[in-house]
Amino acid sequence: MPRVLYVEDDPALRASVAAALTQGEAFDVDVASSARDALVTARMRPPDLVLLDTTLGDADAPELLSALRSVAGLDTTPVVFLAPAPNAEEKERLLASGAASVLEKPSPAEAGGLRDVLARILAE
Fold it and tell me: Of 117, 112, 116, which Cα lies nearest the Cα of 102?
């Protein structure tokens, strides 16, 4: 089962997305609420994919992506940014930083839709 590291500082969204991704045993999900937690978790349990909130309170998302790339074994791990209503310019900037994809941050009710998208990204 693929392992996803989900980095989100909003507790309600973190819980709903994690629950949606683990439903039907689609993914093994580790969650982190901060950049520091993400780096610790990534070192202890290297993920197959990182799902990363762009509005973390303690880090700039592209900087965290760069830090994750320096962790042994994560240099080619796909990273998907979740951004609130990203415009074309923001998507371009985030993709240029090395992200595999940029998706609109879902509401808790929309969280289930991420399963198929992440499965497609991992299949590439």
Answer: 117
